[in-house]
């Protein structure tokens, strides 16, 4: 009697072990790198690959690298912007994901803080490149380099030159222009103001806070409810209350309206210029510095990084080194339009003729800041959520703006300890 | 020998050889695949979630957990936002159940009558249920768009326009808008199920009630309702659990905003796990949802048993 029981137990145990093995076989920790026939294939994830104005050109740029040698092949992976950070960070947290990633700053900071990004100091000798000092200083944490600038895009004021022959130069002019142009289904201005676009609202209010002399922190303590911040966000709320924006419209909608001449002004980063040029070649638009009291605005800093889990870090570094070569930086600069790249490059006469305002963006580099909370970089996504929720509560009239900022200060302080 | 063989009576104690399918292990054999499936894909994740809810775990480093005991539970139950989330969930679930079962019953009663084109009407009613949830959410969002949406145009035309037009960005109107969309998607299922229950109502009983002088309402209450009541109870239970779990419609329409006015338990869980990257807190929220679902199921069984006993008396 005992033998069959032992046999049954053995079979049952073997079945369980077999199932467990089969299940765990699909759960290994691995990056996307693969090697076949002596060619190492790397995956490079970026939201910009899906941008119709720049994606195809970026693919051609990568193809040039693939054609330049026969040992490494880079494949572009397009991940939509709204879910990019979440998707890629979740993969990387699980020890997987693309080998190369173009991050935005909040996700870059969170990933580097969590040890998900490979230090580049031993992989790339940056001293041989003339990196732009202002954006590059945000790539290093405690003397450890985690990224190289892929794109630095300063914020400026885009305006429809048919509707606005001379751009406003003060906030009062800005407000008055927005009011005077709002009529029927045409709006003087557009910005993001819905919780569904939390990251976008943060980017937009950043310009109002810093443009009025405020800051989210002094580097050591949070200063969310500082008087300057209140002044800047009151300006933002005044425009909302004045109904000079298409309320409730998301960025995709009001950008289409801008392209159709139904929105006159918009604060946006340089990457928008090439997008507009590609999507609406007939639109007569231009760009000028944001007309707020202080010349300080946000910048989209987008580093390229190597996944710590990548099995092909050397090969990934080879691609970054290729990208940093002068001719490839120039080519990348031409693709990115009004954005800057890692090194100082000369803009071509053709580009300047097509978009004379490009120099405006270049001149803003020294006064532009990444949209992170300085001193609390890794916690920026959490602080962002708190601030945006409270500011929107004020827009909705549920609390006054001062109370909203006080609440945000209290909640964020509790969060960061 | 031959005679002997022919006259030998069959032994009464000889039992036919049992088929392997008749062994006492057979039920276990048939249940094993389902048990393994449930164990692997439900019991193990549930156990893992219970464990996670007692830890501080980041999505960015899920393998590095710190045991914190009841800290996550203490945190969420002391958080005013979580209280608001529970209230929103309760409102959403109750309104979904009443709306979908109520609308489904009305439509089922209509479709149970004889009229021309009844077959076409019955087919058309199922369309919202057949549509994928994501498509429903995107179409609803487009219809509610403050610039181009048809709903605002209509509301403005009849003088009921929402100030600013942004229904989904108003903390007053966003939840009702989501509820209407949810009920619109759910009522076809409840109406089809209730229609089949209505067709099981014995016609002689309703005719007898009518001959006894009962009006429509009394006939419905005394006869029809008694027959369809168990089906209504089952639908209410299913709608409750599905509504507690509903994610894609709310997430795609408002992401829980504005100002948390449409944030249900599942949305909060997702935001904690993937926005804030706090897997421990998210797991604790998930466990609250599991407990609520279990309470609903237990309550439903108690009500059913009480009703059965009442029926027997």
From TrEMBL, chain B:
GO terms for biological process: transmembrane transport. Keywords: Cell membrane, Membrane, Transmembrane, Transmembrane helix, Transport. The keyword tRNA processing does not apply. It is found in: Cell membrane. The chain crosses the membrane at residues 25-44, 90-111, 123-144, 173-201, 222-244, 279-303. It comes from the Bacteria. One of its GO terms (cellular component) is plasma membrane. It is a multi-pass membrane protein. Signal peptide: none annotated. Residues 86-300 form the ABC transmembrane type-1 domain. Residues 1-20 are annotated as: Disordered. InterPro entries: ABC_transporter_permease, MetI-like, MetI-like_sf. Belongs to the binding-protein-dependent transport system permease family. This is Sugar ABC transporter permease. It comes from Jiangella rhizosphaerae.
């Amino acid at each position: 009697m005992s033998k069959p029981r032992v046999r049954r137990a053995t079979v049952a145990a073997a079945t369980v072990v077999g199932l467990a093995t089969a299940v765990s076989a699909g759960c290994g920790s691995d990056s996307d790198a693969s090697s076949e026939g002596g060619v190492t294939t790397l995956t490079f994830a970026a939201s910009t690959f899906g941008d119709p104005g720049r994606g195809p050109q970026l693919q051609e740029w990568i193809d040039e690298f693939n054609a330049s040698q026969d040992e490494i092949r880079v494949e572009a992976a397009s991940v939509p912007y709204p879910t990019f950070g979440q998707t890629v960070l979740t993969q990387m947290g699980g020890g997987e994901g693309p080998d190369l990633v173009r991050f935005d700053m909040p996700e870059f900071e969170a990933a580097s803080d969590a040890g998900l990004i490979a230090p580049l100091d031993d992989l790339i000798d940056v001293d041989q490149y003339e990196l732009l000092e202002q954006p590059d200083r945000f790539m290093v944490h405690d003397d450890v380099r985690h990224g190289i600038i892929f794109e630095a895009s300063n914020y400026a004021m885009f305006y429809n030159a048919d509707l606005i022959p001379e751009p406003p130069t003060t906030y009062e002019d800005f407000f008055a222009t927005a009011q005077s142009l709002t009529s029927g289904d045409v709006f003087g201005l557009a910005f993001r103001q819905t919780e569904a676009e939390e990251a976008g609202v943060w980017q937009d209010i950043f310009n109002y806070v810093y443009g009025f002399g405020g800051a989210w922190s002094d580097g050591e303590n949070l200063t969310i409810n500082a008087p300057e911040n209140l002044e800047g966000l009151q300006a933002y709320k005044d425009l909302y209350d004045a109904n000079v924006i298409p309320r409730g419209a998301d960025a995709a909608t009001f950008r289409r309206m801008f392209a159709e001449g139904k929105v006159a002004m918009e604060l946006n980063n340089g990457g928008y210029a090439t997008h507009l040029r590609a999507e609406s070649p007939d639109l007569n638009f231009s760009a000028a510095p944001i007309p707020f009291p202080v010349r300080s605005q946000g910048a989209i800093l987008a580093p390229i990084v190597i996944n710590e889990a990548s099995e092909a870090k050397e090969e990934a570094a080879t691609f970054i080194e290729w990208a940093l070569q002068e001719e490839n930086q120039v080519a990348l600069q031409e693709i990115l339009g009004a954005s800057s790249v890692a090194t100082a490059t000369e803009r071509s006469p053709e580009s300047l003729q097509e978009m004379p305002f490009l120099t405006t963006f270049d001149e803003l580099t020294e006064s532009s800041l990444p949209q992170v909370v300085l001193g609390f970089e890794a916690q920026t996504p959490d602080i962002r959520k708190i601030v945006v929720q409270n500011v929107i509560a004020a827009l909705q009239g549920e609390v006054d703006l001062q109370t909203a900022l006080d609440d945000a200060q209290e909640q964020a302080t509790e969060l960061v300890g | 020998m031959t005679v002997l063989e022919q006259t030998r009576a069959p032994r009464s104690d000889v039992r036919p050889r049992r088929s392997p399918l008749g062994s006492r292990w057979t039920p276990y054999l048939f249940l094993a695949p389902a048990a393994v499936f449930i164990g692997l894909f439900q019991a193990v994740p549930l156990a893992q979630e219970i464990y996670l809810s007692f830890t501080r775990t980041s999505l960015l480093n899920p393998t590095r957990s710190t045991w914190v005991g009841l800290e996550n539970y203490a945190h969420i139950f002391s958080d005013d936002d979580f209280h608001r989330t529970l209230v929103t969930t309760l409102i959403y679930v109750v309104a979904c159940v009443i709306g979908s079962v109520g609308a489904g019953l009305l439509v089922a009663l209509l479709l149970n009558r004889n009229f021309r084109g009844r077959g076409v009407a019955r087919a058309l009613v199922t369309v919202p249920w057949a549509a994928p949830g994501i498509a429903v959410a995107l179409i609803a969002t487009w219809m509610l768009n403050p610039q181009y949406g048809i709903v605002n145009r209509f509301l403005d035309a009849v003088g009921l326009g929402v100030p600013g037009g942004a229904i989904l960005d108003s903390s007053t109107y966003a939840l009702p808008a989501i509820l209407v969309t949810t009920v619109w998607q759910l009522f076809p299922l409840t109406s089809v199920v209730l229609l089949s229950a209505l067709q099981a109502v014995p016609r002689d009983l309703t005719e007898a009630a009518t001959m006894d002088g009962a009006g429509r309402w009394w006939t419905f209450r005394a006869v029809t309702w008694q027959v369809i009541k168990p089906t209504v109870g089952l639908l209410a239970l299913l709608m409750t659990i599905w509504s507690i779990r509903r994610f894609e419609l709310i997430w795609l329409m408002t992401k829980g905003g504005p100002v948390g006015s449409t944030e249900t338990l599942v949305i909060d869980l997702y935001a904690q796990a993937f926005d804030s990257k706090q897997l421990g807190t998210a797991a604790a929220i998930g466990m609250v949802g599991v407990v609520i679902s279990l309470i609903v199921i237990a309550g439903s069984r108690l009500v059913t048993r009480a009703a059965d006993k009442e029926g027997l008396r």
